[in-house]
Amino acid sequence: MKIKLILSIIFLFFTFFNSSISDELELENKINKNLRCLICQGQSIYDSQSDFAESMKLVVKQKIDAGMSEEEIYSFFKMQYGEWILYDPQFNTKNFALWLLPIVIFLVGGIIIIAKFGVLKKR
Amino acid sequence: MKNKYYKFSIVVFFIFTFLIFYYGLKQKNFYTPENISIKTLPNLFLKDFYTNNETSFNDILIDSNYYLINIWASWCLPCREEHPYLLKLKKNSSIKIIGINYKDKKDNALKFLDKFENPYFTILNDRNGTASIEIGAYGVPESLILNKEKKIIKKIIGPIDNKKFNEIKKLLKNEN
Amino acid sequence: MILNYIGNFALLFCLIISLVIFITSISSLNNKYFLLKKNLNELLFFKFFFALLSFFSLIVLFINSEFSNETVLNNSHISKPLFYKISGTWGNHEGSLLLWLLILTFFAFFYFLKSKNRPTDERLLTIMFQEVIILGFLFFLLKASNPFNIIYPVPKEGLGLNPILQDPLLAIHPPVLYLGYVTTSIVFSSSLAGLIKGNINNLWAKDIRKWVFISWTFLTLGILLGSIWAYYELGWGGFWFWDPVENISLMPWLSLTALVHCVLVLEKRSILHSWTVILSIITFTLGICGTFLVRSGILNSVHTFANDPERGLYILFFLFFLIFLSVLIYFIYEDKFELNNKNLNVYTKETSIILNNWFVMYFLSVILIGTVYPIFLEVISNEKISVGPPFFNKLIIPFLIPFLIFMSVGPNLKWIKNDNFSNKIKLIIIFILSIVSSILVSKFFGNTTLNITILLAACFYLFFTTIKDFMKKNFKNYAQTISHFGFSLLVLSILMNSIFSKEITSNMRVGDEIKFTDKIIKLQKLENTTESNFLKLIAYFKIVEKNKIDLVLEPEIRIYDKPETITSEAAIKTDIFKDRFIVVNLVKENEYLNVRYQEKPFMLWIWISAILISLGGVINIFKNNEKQIL
After folding, report:
1. Rounded to whole angstroms, how far apart are CA atoms C50 and C41?
2. N or C: which end of chain A has fewer CB atoms below 10 A?
């Protein structure tokens, strides 16, 4: 019961936290922050000042103006430069462990606590 | 018994992590998108370097078995290294070399061509660098080789050197 | 020249003394008559002294710009200001390791001096484990990264220090951080020693608590300094990038935060013995693991470190030697723990602390997995991916809400007994109050989503309950409340900052104006000046609000020659409620400048709240041991 409850709460949180963005400029910044610069490889193109990043920001702007959606822009860059370019790893066959492992650890932690101390047991 | 399994699995886990880190050390940590390449070129509209008239890839990529699209700039030092190879390739009739002048000043670019000779059949302007990104490049110099059907068959990141030049020559021979 | 030899030989002496201590501490264990208690003290002091001598030699080499030394050659040059010559000593790989060693030897000495109330064999074992760590570092220093390598013929000029590292904050950031890391080694050694001797109990917890707080406080301050530096030097207004190097400093901090709480439960309730030991091991190994990940160059990061896979290999072996050593010791002596599987009551302080540990470990696992997953994936499937801020935000923020609520309620509960909620009504009133204020804030500023409102409410809840706790009668527990208050303020300011930040980016020539909300930003003029080791281009901006000059900001572009680098220096005007941040950037082959202007509310409060958090730790360190905590 408890686990089901926790799972449903977690699920609810994740659906909540896909915030929508209204402003076009905000969208542009959001996309820029999510694209990794190929020249200064520790930074997003938003933070980077390299030539490459500057041009890439322009391309993002052009694509938004051309009416492309956020997802379309990501898949465009993914096609050009590989999945590496996205800071937000997608949920797919090779990344499912990345997304699920922390949750699994969280649940296992909860089970251990209940087993050891009977914290949540009714008494 | 249960206790043994858990001890065993913890040790296995750490050995596994150790091996991953050990082999991870041998990987190069700088990412280059060499293996990923778009197979077809988008039909971009760009301005001609000399006339400033708008043209597109579809207008230019005609009448040749192979095309080499080379991104260059006068301020880029490695471009000078690869320049002699481009001049050699120019003599090969089965390939057409198209230059994309990346984030450059026209005066400087003209001086560069004057000094080192012009290997390009056509030069297109990319003042703000966006065209280079549209074709999947990430810096200067970078070269794409296309076949007759305008499919990308090779991507060269960085300057063309002797080894890469021979690869290109081989490619041109094989397919002929 | 002579200093190279002095430094080198001092290190060798260190090595010899360390070996002697290691051997004597082992043999003293079997034979109590052999015990060299007094001598051990002296030996530990001499080892510290020689490490200090070696460190001073390196400092003097840096000050005198003696390029016969390879480290000096690679990281300094003559025209560098004196201050940065000194701080350059630990601004590089070799020097920073020497600093590590220095602090390690100091704390080994200090621990032995301050632990007289612990059983002798436990102290000796702790020193023995400490020596294992010190020997590991010494071998590493001497073999793979000797700071005293001699270059001949002597070059005339050095290669210079990376200019973004030439910064006063960055001069004190590494020592503070290392103080934090190194003290975790004491906790590590002591817990292993306690484990072997079966001494892990409430008394041990009481004695080790001080060390846990020392290292937690230093680590908090170290991370704070690092992010302040990143804010004004590195980025375009960001202070936390979820960059691997930052994550690596956050991981030991998180496990220490768990440990800080867990040690209290052990002290008060005599439960969680094994978990405390595991946390101590995790904390220290995470620190070394971080060193490995950063120095080996296995990950790439904004924070540049000279990296070298060969050194990485050494740290890797050392790391796994320590891991397997502790796992082995744990398995062998596991049954020495006092076994008392007490059933806990739900509404008690210990339960809420266990919940805290649960969540903190979850946050830790998110960061750890996010940081190392790309390495695993690349080795296994040869695919490269990036894990960045969106991943961490998505997995951490939702869990922050229950975490904050537990954090507000927990301190109001009692030990052992189920609380009958004497102050239940107060807590409920505050809960309603915080929901109302969060809705008001969201409505007032508009443009926020439901999830942010909920998170805000949870923040306000912690914020208000801690304020309530301050006003409680005969209130003793300042340290904890200040830290918790600081944390609520931190999350609150970060949240407000991310919601209400505004920015504009534009290309500008001299004389250009741009409109930003109700202000006009004007680029008035550009000025070139020459400084001792760089060229400076200053841009003068005027911010006009309601037709009167509100502010003049002067961001710079610096062009360093050694090594050749261009950096942008942001101009920041800090006010109580917002920072105004402007940075300019050269655009290749163009006359105009790329300008980014940002208004960032509550920036100052982020720093203040981090200081408050560590203030709690400081109070705990200096608080008299006898007094009741919590």
Report:
1. 15
2. N
User: CA C437: distance to chain centroid?
Assistant: 33
Q: Which residues between 575 and 604 in chain C have a beta carbon less than 8 angstroms from any beta carbon of chain B?
A: 588-589
Please indicate whether, in this complex, the C-beta atoms of A117 and C585 are within 8 angstroms of each other.
Answer: no
| Contact yes or no for B7 and C331 at CB 8 A | yes
Q: Is C316 on the interface with B (CB under 8 A)?
A: yes
| Distance (Å, whole) CA C369 – CA C376 | 10
- As beta bridge partners, residue B152 has B146
User: Among A38, A51, A82, whose Cβ lies nearest the Cβ of B129?
Assistant: A51
Given a cut of 60, whether residue A119 has pLDDT beyond it is: no
What is the rounded distance in angstroms from the CA atom of residue C317 to the CA atom of residue C332? 22
**Side-chain half-sphere CA neighbours of B48 within 13 A:** 11
Best mutation target among B29, B77, B112, B132 (most C Cβ atoms within 10 Å) is B29
Return residues 41-70 of A near C (CB < 8 Å).
Answer: 41-44, 46-47, 49, 51, 54
- Separation between Cα atoms, residue C176 and residue C181, nearest integer Å: 9
- Please give the full DSSP string across B89-152, using - where no structure is assigned: HHT-TTEEEEEEEES--HHHHHHHHHHH----SEEEEESSSHHHHHTT--SSSEEEEE-TT-BE
Joined tokens for residue B28:
């190069």
C131-156: average pLDDT: 90
Of C561 and A121, the one with more pLDDT: C561
pLDDT value of position C380: 92
What average pLDDT does this structure show over A23-28?
80
Helices (H), C419-566: 424-445, 450-470, 478-500
* Tokens 């261009």, located at residue: C566
Stretch A98-110: mean pLDDT, rounded? 94
Which of C316, C379, C384 lies closest to B31 in CB terms?
C384
Tokens representing residue C534 in the block: 């760089």
What does the buried/exposed string (b/e) look like for C281-294 if buried means 16 or more CB atoms within 10 Å of the residue's CB? Answer: bbbbbbbbbbbbbb
Q: Output the pTM of the full model.
A: 0.91
ipTM reported for the complex, 2 dp: 0.89
Is residue C112 within 8 Å of C41, Cβ to Cβ? yes
C362 within 8 A of A102, measured Cβ to Cβ:
yes
